[in-house]
């Protein structure tokens, strides 16, 4: 996702404010200031980056000791003690982590090499027949399409992958921030409504099982990131007042199956890479880099390079 926010005079970061509710439809908009939505976008984007196959961007941020501070800054902007604590745990582990080391750990957890694999796909946690799974996948694709977002060419992972779902919510948060800067209440309703529906119908259903499975196999970087994502989503569920239908907690996750999981990682023996060491862009129009912080906000609508959904 190219940075859609132009640089400008720094803005003061406000504390948490009471939720607002639209007079048109009653959809809650919550964070009144756009800076809060930007910090939420940063958290989602950093979680997506951390849960993806380690590439140049994550490696560079870890080497420069930037990943942890970015997380802490974003979490601090939302002024939520639970988010801050979870971000601190990731930052502590990230300070001692290197890209090459995480590459192997990622392959063991999310790749297809021999051993236990943690599924990063929503559909593997859902009960029901194949037809149900097909409908769910089509629904996810519909959310992306509604905001003119598509999976990048060369990406082998399915649309229900956790990195795509978190990137999508990051994108919605940036759109929300932009629309708030413009005072577009109708546009805000559209975006917040989509955010609410996506959390309730998709990521909010299975995030906890994903975090649980990661914690069974890992006690380091990936467990901390999965726990942070769980706190982020739990915060969303509370603020958006949604009630996701949680996936079952008793069935074992299906073992790796190419028809279900996609064919990511065929080129490097299950490490999850394409074989050439390159990390593909995920969703066209979404993450190319982690969103800038609120200090990069412009003062007027002309600073934005992209309009929200019409």
From TrEMBL:
Question: Which InterPro entries does this UniProt record tie to the protein?
Answer: DMSO/NO3_reduct_chaperone, TorD-like_sf, TorD/DmsD_chaperones
Say which domain of life the source belongs to.
Archaea
Put simply, this protein is called Dehydrogenase
The UniProt regions of compositional bias labelled Polar residues, in chain numbering, are 1-12
For whether the record's keyword set contains Iron, the answer is no
Give positions of region: Disordered.
1-27, 289-310
Ordered alphabetically, the record's keywords are: Chaperone
- Return the SUPFAM superfamilies for the record: TorD-like (SSF89155)
